[in-house]
Please model this.
Amino acid sequence: MIVRSFFVFVLALPVLALADELPAIDVEQNAYFPYVLEIDALDDLFDLLDKHLDLSRMETEKRMTKEQLGRLMDNAPEAVSSLLSTEGYFSPTVKIKLDESTVPALVSLKVDAGQPTLVRSVDVNYLGDIVPDEVRMKRLEERQEQTWPLPKGSVFRQSAWDSAKRGAVNTLLNRRYPAAKLVHAEANVNPEAHTVDLTVDVDSGPAYFYGPLSITGLSRYPEKLILNNVQFREGAEYRRNDLLDLQTDLQNLPHFSLVLVDVDLPADPPFIAPVKVTVQEAPLSKISTGLGFSTNTGMRGSFDYRYLNLMDRAWVLDTGLRLQQKEQAVSAGITFPRFASGYEHRVYASYVNENIQGLDTSTWKAGVSRSSTEKYIDRLMAIEYQMERRALNDGTVFDPQSLTAKYQWVRRDVDRIRNPRSGNVITVEGGGALKGLLSDESFVRLYGRGVQFWPVGEKSVVVARLELGDTFTKDPLRVPTDWLFRTGGSSSVRGYDYQSLGLSVGGSTIPGRVMAVSSLEFQTPVYKDWLGAVFVDHGGVGDQWKDWRGSTGVGVGTRWVSPVGVIGLDVARGVEENQFRVHFSMGVTF
Model:
């Protein structure tokens, strides 16, 4: 033990000698030094400074030392000036001081922004082949006056300046001049006069026209599958939206997993731009299965099969099987590729069995439909033959049949489809049947639905919904259930069971001729992608409007904005029935 200690002592001697030569470590200098930042600035500048200044972002840093804080304070005036210049303030006065008498220490930042810099003149010049085009030049001048984000007398802001430069070029890029480019842009600031003179020069380049269209990657399907979606002709002037629309339409077809639409822009005349369409074909067959649960119809399982090239004509065959506790369904259909007119056609057949609210219904359908989809508007026309067996709890049975014609119009004008915050969605439907024409009763059914989104603050939203429906007929018992109305459940009047609001006949809830439902909901963020919601629903069904009685549901819920859509869970109280119900939904209800 003595020998071992001796060797340890001998080995330690050089280390001890070296330690005598090292400088002493200032423990206090490297100690954690907490601080609080107090910003004194104009309201519209406070958020900018609070969000982007290092002094603000490092306020909660647990390894902050006094020396690091000193460097941040030294850099603060320059950082403030740089940030304020983006908002048009080029001569700010910045004062900063540190008060160590409190714990944590107090850093006071006082900012006098000074006078904002105003736009004194705007000079936008277009060069190139567009100059002789007097009509287009006049339109550009008119557009500039209406949309230029920095008019004379406005406060200069960097974001608006960047937008203005992009807009001056994009106006040409979008139509006829895809080679347009910004050749000069200058913001000449006079800090003494607090003014700025803006100059932008844009070279339009040559005017381009569509050349021939070539297709690459197509092996299984006929070329008309693509050509029927082309809405422009060879020789027409170039429009960027034409290409974007074509790419979107082709990408929406199930036949392709990847689509790229592009043009070649020759540098020398004639300025004819050939259009190139490159596709990657999707697998011919697709099988999908699923398990789930719905608060409306209970546990469910599904099986779907799709084949994309029936008869080697790119016809899409789809079949489906749905097994749920309260509903079972089987369906099959063939969808034909879009015609050059822009319409898509489909033939289909289905069988559905439901046992909901004491009403046992078996329905057979077969029909043909014609539909079109535009940017905001969907249209559907259908002719359908339907046979139904409807059994009530008291043993009464009805067997209505009908040959119906239907028209549906849907307009979606929202800021985003997955989780809208502003805009509206309107649905209008009309249809009916004539007695004696494969129909037991004449009727006309009208239905309308509107959903309005109002943004509140930065992230909250109010959602209002209104539904109205009326079926004009003498004998509703001879009208199939789908052409009448029941309501209640998720996406309807919450707090009540699915389709429990209707007419009470024979121990069952059967559909009525008139329906009205309204809803008001407020959603606000609570945590990351989670929203909280409070709502009130009111609605009901009647045989006639004079008999209509509404029921009210109130409740709270949560919404998760997932990558696949909005998933909602609600707990609602049915006021009239004094009952609570839980409702689960997926997707935005349009």
In short: The first strand starts at residue 35 and ends at 40. The two ends are 86 Å apart (CA to CA). The chain has four domains: 35-112, 118-203, 209-281, 338-516.
